[in-house]
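Field reference: sequence -> structure
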Amino acid sequence: MSTLMSNYARLPVTFAKGEGAYLWDTDGARYTDALSGIAVCGLGHAHPAITQAISEQAATLMHTSNIYGIAQQQQLADRLSEITGMQRSFFCNSGAEANEAAIKLARLYGHRRGIDSPTVIVADGAFHGRTLATLTATGNPKVHEGFSPLVEGFVRVPYDDIAAIEAVAKEHKNIVAVLVEPAQGEGGIHIPQADYLARLRTLCDQNEWLLMLDEIQTGMGRTGKWMAYQHSDILPDVLTLAKGLGNGFPIGACLAQGEAADLFTAGTHGSTFGGNALACRVALTVIDTIKQGDLLTRVNSLSAHFAQGFKAKLGQHTGVSEVRVNGLLIGIQLNKPCAELVKIALDNHLLINVTAGNVVRLLPPFILTDEQADDIINTLSSLITDFLAQH
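Structure field:
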C-alpha cells in the first residue's frame, strides 16, 4: 500500500534524469517530452544556466524572510516590469497562489469603492487552481464535486463572448473585475477571437472593472511573446504568472498596475516562502536565457512548423475536428474521447496530455530542434490516425 495520497492517477513510469527535450526513466529508456511538465520547463530539462543559478544561489543564500529586503526579489520585480509593462509584483509559490492574490486584490478594490459583495466575472472552461477560491473560479463542474460550499463572489459566462458579459453587467451591480485566460489551456486549448482581449479592456474601462489575466500557462514566452496579451496591444490591471517563470522551480507572481498596484498594504497579504532569493535568482536566469537565446523568435518558428505539420497530416482527417496552435500551445481536437492516447503515446516514448476529454494537448519546450519537432509530429500523427481507425 502506497504511503502517498491517491489524488493523482499516475502513469506507470518514473523518470530519473532529463536533458533538453528528453527524459530517461529508471530503466534507462528515453522519452521525448512534448508536455514540458505542463508548460513549466520551457527551457527543457537540466538547462545548464538554471543548474548553475540554483547551485550558486543555494551555496550563498536561499531564504531569509519578507520582513527583510531581498535583492533578487527587487531585481526580478524590475525585470518583470520591463517585459510586461506592469508596475508592481507580489511573489508566491504557485499559480493558484498568484490567482488567490488577484482575487484578494479584486475584493479590496470593490470594498474600497463601497461595494459590500464584490463579484468577479469568470469563464466556462477556465482553470485557475485548486484552492477553494480558485477552484470556484475554475469553470469545470467536475473539479467542484465534493467541495461545496464553494466561495461566493463569482459569476460565470461563456468564454470568448463579450455579449454575455454585457448581459451579466446589466443584472449584477456588484461586479468589480473580469478574470480570464488569454487562451484556455486545461479547458481544451481554446483560442479566442483576435479582438477578445481588446474588447474586454474597453468593457472594463467603461465599467471601472479590473481586467485580470491568468497567464500562468500562456505567459513567459509560451505564445511567442513574453505575455499572450501583448499580441493584442493592451495592458491588464492584474496579471498572474507561474509555471514557465521558474522552469521547474516553484515560483508564482501577481503583477498589477494603476489603481490595483496600490491595493496591497503591509499586513493585507503575504507568503513565507514567496520571493525568496533562490526562487527569484532562478526566475531572473529564465528571463535572461530566453532573451539571450532569442527564444521568442524560436517559439514562433516552431509554432509555424507544428501548425503546418499537423494540419498537413491530420487537418483533412474526418476524425479530427480541429488543430489549434497558439505559439507552443497546441491542441488537436478529435471527434471522440481519446484519453487512452496518453498511455499509447507513453508506450511509444512520447509524453503528451489529453484535456477536456477529446483534445490532445502539447506544450513542448522552446529549445526543440526541427528534427525533434518532426519526430513529435510524425509519431503523434501516426498514433492518432491508428487510434481513429481502431475506433
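Note: The CA atoms of residues 238 and 256 lie 4 Å apart.
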